[in-house]
Every structure is written in structure tokens, then in C-alpha cells.
Amino acid sequence: MSKPTPAAFISTETYRILLADDNVDFVNSIGALLTAMGHSVVITHNGPDALAAAARFCPDYAFLDIGLPQMSGYDLARGIRKLSCGAMTALIAVTGWGQEKDRQLAFEAGFDHHMVKPVRFEQIEEILGNRSIIKKLRT
């Protein structure tokens, strides 16, 4: 069986996407690409701002750095899950921490997926094209 091409994962739907990372260049670049694809994107650079944005914006997907200033990504994920729309948000940890214990901590905090930096845009497209992540949350 051949491996699917990256184009096979590209989503034709548009989503509300929250990006939270203190690496300004990373989130601005990813945000610009996602916006060009037609998605609604909100960018934040610390935990409290991301939590407030999630409450206002009710994202379909939230790509969250674990090492955010002022609030860890783990605490942010727990906070988002407590929001009225939080159960419906696909939470993706985006981090430099890739050990098995880091993955376990992410899942215990409420993340649905764990990505280790450096993250390529194709990986984000693959997540957006994988409807099972959202379907799992909505069933």
C-alpha cells in the first residue's frame, strides 16, 4: 500500500484556528498561510491571552505551545476544556518536548494530538485534513 501524498490530507473546509506560541515568527508565518487558505485565525503569544481568545473565538482547532509565558500549555489546555465550547475544540500540543512522558502529560491535560518542533506546515495541513480528530470530539 502506498503512503498518501500530502495533498491527500489537505482540507477543503475552513476552520476557526487558534495559534498560541511565543515564537512570533513561527505563529505569524503559520497564521499567514492558514489565513491564505481561507481559515479564520487568531494568534496569541501567552497563555492568558490564548485562554481569553479561546473563550471569545471558540476555535475548531487550537495549536498550543507547551512552554508559553505566564501559563503553561498544559494549564491552558485544561482551561480551554472548561469553556462551554472547549469540548468541541481539537487541541494540538506544539512543543520541543517529545519524550513519551511529555506526550502522556499532554494527553492527561486534554490535548488530542502532540507535535514535536520543528513543525512543518504540511503536518498542520495533515491534522486539518484528518476529520477523525474533530469527529471524535463531536460524537
Strand content: 15-25%
N-to-C span: 30 Å
Number of strands: 5
CATH homologous group name: Response regulator
- The radius of gyration over CA amounts to 14 Å
Share of helix, binned: 40-55%
Task: Give the helix/strand class.
Answer: alpha/beta
Order of helices and strands: EHEHEHEHEHH
CATH architecture annotation name: 3-Layer(aba) Sandwich
CATH class descriptor? Alpha Beta
Describe this structure in words.
The chain is of the alpha/beta class and 139 residues long. It has a single domain, classed as Response regulator (Rossmann fold). It has helices at residues 24-36, 47-57, 73-82, 100-109, 121-129, 131-138; strands at residues 16-20, 40-44, 61-65, 90-95, 113-116. Strands 2-1-3-4-5 form a five-stranded parallel β-sheet, sandwiched between helices. Helix 2 (47-57) packs parallel to helix 3 (73-82). The termini are far apart.
State the gist of this model:
This protein is α/β, with parallel strands linked by helices.
Task: List the defining traits of the structure above.
Rossmann fold, alpha/beta, globular, disordered N terminus, five-stranded parallel sheet, 139 residues, 6 helices
How is the topology of this model organized?
Layout: E1 16-20, H1 24-36, E2 40-44, H2 47-57, E3 61-65, H3 73-82, E4 90-95, H4 100-109, E5 113-116, H5 121-129, H6 131-138
Parallel strand pairs: 1-2, 1-3, 3-4, 4-5
Helix pairs in contact: 2-3
